[in-house]
Amino acid sequence: MLFAKPDLVLLHPPSVYDFRRLTIVPGPISDLVPSTPVFELYPIGFTYLGEYLERGGINTRVVNLAQRMLEDERFDVPGFLSKLEPAAFGIDLHWLTHAQGALEVARLVKEVHPSKPVIIGGYSATFFHRELMSYPFIDYVVRGDSTEEPLRRLMEAIMEGGSASDIPNLTHRGPGGAVIENPLSYLPASLEYLGDNYRYMIRSAFKYGDWKSVRAFWNWWSYPVTMVLTCRGCTRECAFCGGSRRALLRLCGRERPAFRSPERIAHDVELITRFTTAPIFVVGDLLQGGTEYALRTLELISHVAFKNHLVLELFSPAPRDYFERVASSFDNYDFQISPETHDERIREVIGKPYDNEELERCISWALESGCDKFDVFFMIGLPGQDRDSVMETVQYCGELLRRFGPRVNPCIGPLAPFIDPECIYHQEPERYGYRLIHRTLEEFAHASLSPHWRDMLGYETRWLSRQDIVEVTYEALLTLNAIKENNGLVSPSFAARNDRRIRDTISLLKLVDDVLTIEDTARRRAELEKLRREARKLFKELRLPKEELTWPVTGSRFKRFNIFRILMGWL
Questions:
Q1: CA separation, residue 540 to residues 23, 70, 216, 536, 537 (Å)
Q2: What share of the chain is helix, strand, coil (3-state, %, to 5)?
Q3: Measuring CA to CA, how many Å separate 250 from each of 45, 146, 171, 260, 423?
């Protein structure tokens, strides 16, 4: 049925709702992910929610509001929302970068539709669920990492006039306005109930007559990379991660990861290869589930005939026979690992206790097996890390390139912009040398409006102030850019453009700092407005760091006839 009326509209907000009119100099915060600083990439959980609810008879439409606003300066958000008449609206607050955008979109929805319930969910929403309920424009918070069934029951209650008192994982208001926190009791140990999220998205675009709103990020049409979920939860204890084992135990009550079966993962890969030849990113280290689980998954995927690049994550160095198994199974494959620092002592403190010799053996085995590209990610803002330590990490990137050649792609960026709620750093900041600057959701939202990304940072360390983090980040980026050019990883023309982009950003941030010293509010605002045009120019140059993260598309981007077959139910 084309152009159906949705019962629930799931909205993905931009990081900052007014990004189109505010002067915000784009920093490196989003350089190592596909999206822009608007963080228009919506959580993969949105697609599973939509599929599950539709299977349960609840028409659910996903709208990437951030992407719609990003692609069209004149996109009228209130006008768009006013034309929608669902029973309820859902908004994700998964990543804390969306604190301001999620609140403002929720406020706007309630202004346009005063009688429609507004539902918030996600990791950050789960942590701040009590504070969220202090806002009159938010009616419900669905907590936890698996909200499909609680949301289905909530939607039934909304549509049928039922009670929310026995819906698990729900924070809501009682008859007298008191906030009620239902038990966090829905925590599925198996993910076999999750369906075909990509089939849902393709059909949804036609069902609701809207191809634009389901796009994942800014250039997805030209680079339709996809993700395959392997689990919810984690076995690791990375100190900076809000998705670590201990963090999810506190936040969601999850004692152990729930893994999707190898059969379901292979099924997803097969479906994706039916409609696109773009890379497929397998989210999570398969070895988390054990060697047998990982090898079984690889075996089943190998039965699928495809040429797409398969991108695999490693949470720690893998044994040689793992790479040999991958090589015997696939033509095109790539790996990623995040050692975060060259300093083995710091690496152990942050929960990654392997040495550089292990890391380098891992890279060597992967490349010898035939790996096309091996991304290695490093971070700025770690415990014990000063300016010299950061630059030593950059020099280590050069050593990796000289040893292994341009199939290795080392990258570096700041731990930004905020410390994840419930991670070890957040729980024990003083022990790890952190000073937390923002603590409430309102503080995070306000910080997001800062013209300078330094003032957005929610932390500083005993070794690096926020300004220090900014300065050493740009020093590291400039140096690494030159190292990559010298070692043949990027072309001279690319390196020159990227160098100019970074230096122009530094210059503009200095101008912003000068303006921020102006005491007169009206004059300060007017001077910031003059800088907005330059900030927008830099925003358009953000494609440069993204180009370093891409993998090849092996053929035409889309298989249009197969998309038609999926729509007709023939695939």
A1: 14, 11, 18, 7, 5
A2: 45, 15, 40
A3: 20, 15, 17, 22, 9
Query: What are 126's two structure tokens?
Result: 């789960």
Pick from 276, 279, 258, 389: which is nearest to 332 by CA?
279
- Closest residue by Cα to residue 59 from 264, 207, 190, 184: 207
Q: Which residues contact 400 (CB under 8 A, 6 or more apart)?
A: 360, 363, 376, 408, 410
| pLDDT at res. 1 | 40
- What sign does the CA torsion over 343, 347, 353, 359 have? negative
Q: From CA 379, how far away is CA 444, in angstroms rounded?
A: 21
DSSP 197: H
pLDDT at 101 > cutoff 70:
yes
Q: How many CB atoms lie within 10 A of CB 124?
A: 27
Peptide bond into 150 cis (omega under 30): no
> Which is it for the CA torsion 519, 520, 523, 526, positive or negative?
positive
Q: Which of 167, 171, 168 is nearest to 187 (CA)?
A: 168
All domains in the chain, ordered by first residue: 8-181 (3.40.50.2300), 221-547 (3.80.30.20)
Indicate if the pLDDT at residue 15 is higher than 60: yes
* Cα torsion angle, 212, 216, 217, 221, sign: negative
Per-residue exposure over 432-466, b if at least 16 CB sit within 10 Å of its own CB, e if not = bbbeebbeebbebbebbebbbbbbbbbbbbebbeb
Closest to 535 in 3D by CA, of 556, 554, 507: 507
Q: Are 393 and 411 within 8 A, CB to CB?
A: no
Both tokens assigned to 155: 């939607």
Residues in the chain: 571
**pLDDT of amino acid 543:** 84
**324 contact partners, CB below 8 Å, separation of at least 6:** 369
pLDDT (tens digit per residue) in 31-72: 988 899 999 999 999 999 999 999 999 999 999 999 999 999
Q: Whole-prediction pTM value?
A: 0.96
Quick one: which H or E segment has residue 11?
Answer: strand 8-11
